[in-house]
Design goal:
The complex is a heterodimer of chains A (198) and B (210). Chain A is an alpha+beta fold and 198 residues long. In chain A, 44% of the residues lie in helices and 18% in strands. In chain B, strands 1, 2, 3, 4 and 5 form a 5-stranded antiparallel beta sheet that branches. Helix content of chain B is 39%, strand content 17%. The chains are: A alpha+beta (198), B alpha+beta (210). The interface between A and B is large, with 107 and 94 residues.
């Protein structure tokens, strides 16, 4: 079991919801998906590589027949999977500090959700509804979400610079090289082994 | 479709695990034991199969009881959860898995109810789709780059950082000469393999203090 691979942490959480409330949550996600400005805080946090929410209606748990018994549940369930950089505490702290309004909007429909602020009962709730990961894979464990974004900036700038910089006179090259450096200087961070957090 | 964000597909599977009282150890434990031995480096099944950015496998034992006044209820099956973020379309991805890592799929999903095996790809794909949950909302920080493009970009980033550091204060004629050579070397470097830079992690702990 490991929730961590390199610089990414895998969080899994499941919370019960009364079925009539899930329709409100579906509407909220519909707005979140289609009004991009509503995602800005999530984007600005910039330490989430991928995240998803999945609503499972109480009668839609996969049923394959054979010897399996069909589930009989009172609640719908909200599954949350996140792939984020940093530690559990840093993540929950940042979520609570920056995204409390958005989090409340999503989880207030779940039973016993205490609210994202204050952070202590919020952490207690997350710890209660979280379950651990058995196997975790990432294609680029040495990189954070910001590293990936930066790497694509460097690649794009290099593609443009190589066209105009390779065949010009040294004086023109110097100018073009300086412009290239200015464009990439904030995107050359070191990627490597993740720090061990205790 | 909520399963997609840009070119990224978010696959969520919930596969019921066999509940056989006579199995010892139990099927969920056998899955966990297999997964605990599985490498997460470039030999990982998800590195061998094409297109996976991040993926996880989780045995979900039960739903969570959050306390009074909520009702306590339990699942009748344990479920194997696959959460995967990959490039392209679902059918291509599933066929890619069945083609490249059939032994891992059969060793893991062989403990799940109704699993038909990976040799019949049509049945395999249908089984996976039967276990699929529609993602309600999928977020991707970068949603328009493939795994190959991202690995190449990270390789470029490291090389450019090194080149820039090495050429601080050099005259422009030398920088230009070396830059042309640098581009040739960069173009000749074989592309990074997925998870090639994975570091072994000996500490495997759980819980909130990770």
């Amino acid at each position: 079991m490991s929730n961590i691979n390199g610089k990414v942490y895998a969080m899994n959480a499941i919370t019960p919801m009364r079925p009539w409330k899930t329709w409100i949550l579906r509407l909220i996600f519909f707005i979140l998906k289609n009004v991009k400005s509503k995602q800005q805080d999530l984007i600005n946090l910039s330490f989430i590589e991928f995240a998803r929410w999945v609503i499972i209606p109480r009668d839609r748990f996969p049923f394959l027949g054979n010897t399996q018994h069909r589930e009989s549940l009172k609640y719908d369930y909200l599954l949350f999977f996140s792939n984020f950089n940093g530690t559990w505490n840093q993540y929950i702290d940042a979520f609570s500090a920056v995204l409390s309004h958005g989090l409340n909007l999503i989880w207030r429909w779940s039973e016993k959700f205490p609210g994202a602020v204050p952070v202590t009962p919020f952490k207690g709730y997350i710890a209660r509804v979280q379950f651990d990961t058995d196997y975790y894979y990432t294609a680029y464990p040495e990189a954070t979400a910001n590293d990936v974004k930066s790497a694509h900036v460097v690649q794009q700038e290099l593609n443009e610079f190589r066209v105009k910089g390779a065949n010009c006179a040294p004086e023109q090259f110097q100018q073009a090289y300086l412009e290239f450096l200015i464009a990439v200087q904030a995107h050359l961070g070191y990627t490597g082994e993740a720090p061990m957090v205790f | 479709m909520a399963n997609k964000n840009g070119s990224i597909y978010g696959l969520t599977l919930l596969c019921p695990i066999l509940n056989d009282e006579n199995a010892s150890p139990s099927h969920d434990l056998q899955i966990r034991e297999y997964l605990s031995e599985l490498t997460a480096d470039s030999q990982s099944p998800f590195a061998v199969a094409p297109g996976t950015h991040l993926a996880r496998l989780v045995v979900m034992d039960d739903v969570v009881y959050v306390g009074m006044p909520a009702c306590e209820e339990h699942l009748k099956s344990k479920y194997l959860v696959l959460e995967s973020n990959f490039d392209g379309d679902l059918d291509d991805y599933l066929v890619g898995l069945a083609t490249t890592i059939p032994e891992h799929l059969d060793a893991i999903w062989g403990h799940c109810n109704g699993y038909p095996g990976s040799s019949d790809k049509a049945k395999f794909v249908q089984y996976m789709k039967d276990c699929q949950l529609e993602t309600t909302f999928l977020f991707a920080a970068v949603n328009d780059k493939t795994v190959t493009q991202t690995l190449a970009a990270l390789q470029t980033q490291r090389a450019v950082a090194h080149f820039v550091a090495e050429h601080q204060g050099a005259d422009s004629a030398k920088i230009q000469r070396d830059f042309i050579e640098f581009l040739k070397i960069l173009d000749a470097i074989p592309p990074s393999k997925p998870a090639m830079n994975a570091q072994p992690r000996n500490i495997k702990t759980g819980g909130r203090n990770e």
